[in-house]
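Run log, item B.
One chain of 114 residues. Sequence copied directly from the ordering sheet:
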Amino acid sequence: MEKETESKKEQKPSWVEKLKTRWQVNSTWQVFVILIVFALTGFTVMYGKRWFFGIIGFDESTAWYTKTIVWVLLILPIYQVVLLFYGAIFGQFNFFWNFVKRTFGRIFFFLNKK
């Protein structure tokens, strides 16, 4: 019974191995660096929200739907730029450049007329 359990564990790849395969990276270290870059980008964008809204003049009296629309329209390009910035700092620029190209390709697929 134990041998069956051990063989099942060996057959199922870990989440890190799945990410290595999906992202086509060579090392576990790269996976963790990429995850750190995603985390830093998310925190930076979320903490920069209040500052950004202050610059464009939003305050407590601004309607929530206006804030939401502006945030959704601006978050995508801002997030991508910050992602590339952190990716470059952590030596993974090529990975994130390809990631950004794929993301925009999926979003703006209708513009890719061949």
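Observations after the first pass:
- The chain has a mean pLDDT of 87.
- Residues 34-95 form one domain.
Flagged for discussion on Thursday.
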